[in-house]
Amino acid sequence: MGMKHPVYMDHNASTAVLPAVRKAVARALEMTGNASSVHGAGRAARKVIEDARDRVAALVRARSADVVFTSGGTEANNLAIQGFEQRPGGALVLASAVEHTSVLKASPNIETIPVDREGVINLEALDMMLADAFSASRTHPVLVSVMLANNETGIIQPVSEVAAIAERHGALVHCDAVQAAGKIPVDITSLGVHMLSLSAHKIGGPAGIGSLVLAGDLANALNLSAVIKGGGQERGRRAGSENLPGIAGFGVAAEEALKNLPEFSNLAVRRDRIEEELGRYATTHVFGAGTSRLANTCCLTMPGVAAERQIIAFDLAGISLSAGAACSSGKVEPSHVLAAMGVAVDEADTAIRVSLGWNTTDQDINAFLAAWREIYDRAETATNDGVAA
Ligand code: PLP
Hints:
Blueprint: E1 7-8, H1 19-29, H2 40-59, E2 67-70, H3 73-85, E3 92-96, H4 101-104, E4 110-113, H5 123-133, E5 142-145, H6 159-169, E6 172-176, H7 188-191, E7 195-199, E8 210-214, H8 244-259, H9 261-265, H10 267-281, E9 297-301, H11 307-316, E10 319-320, H12 336-340, H13 345-348, E11 351-355, H14 362-384
Parallel strand pairs: 1-10, 3-4, 3-5, 5-6, 6-7
Antiparallel strand pairs: 2-8, 7-8, 9-11
């Protein structure tokens, strides 16, 4: 195939760090102070952190004081769920079946809310589960955790409707907005949720930094306890000396993401071209195509070709993408998201995720389309020749 220009189409796994972020991180690395120290160096570090806090707050229209920096989206989700559950007397957590594993595995006691075939949360089921949770036999406070956009399919959930239903029952709401922030407008107040998770490396910042954002006075009802205990940093909600370079980078990434929101939505043109051209070429299926999705994400099947084979073939062609979630083991495992949508294992096994980013070009799309057709044709020929495909 010759030398190929590398094509990165796995932006939902982690996106390229923005040049302005790189500079901010480098500047912060040159600083010495601990932000908790009262001397000048400490105060300078404190200023960098508070400036970044303002910018992260602005991304989701929250108050700066309600931004709790964490080591990433995973910790933010764990803090939301465990910090709520640890209250005296216990608590109940309901989460949609398509949540990220950092929500689903944050507690062994989570009850899952089903989704429909398009991957959208079943609001009637939620209503019934909440009615049951608050029936005479169960008196625990209840938290509902529903993501704003899914990492594997890009499907957007009706979070404000979830919040309205929860409010009617007296339940509180957490929203994992890790994939939505910087891709669609996010307003913590209009969503009506009590807390919201963010991660910097999905929006052009460094990995290893994120935030749990609280919803002002509304969040008092959470009685959230710290999960990482120690010093009084982050207003006692998350102990440990702050990750200054990470926070500085996150702040700049949040500012850029907010500025570039309109441009991001233009990626739908490139995404739709993929879906239209491949739809004409083969009987590929795009998950959640009939519902609202992120502009950059497409989860689609290549009939008869296992995702693992596709990923390797694409990689040989210089194209990086994932099968569903990029899991830490590096193995392709069946997607719990597609399973929850009622997708048969055979079909789910042929699904890959294409996720575009700010630096995706038309040439990248062309390279992907050419490689897809070649991989598909090769598999077809092998099957027709009776060779084990
Ligand atoms: N939530 C969602 C929806 C994600 O896609 C991810 C990233 O994979 C996370 C949470 C975890 O974020 P982080 O990688 O910062 O721990």
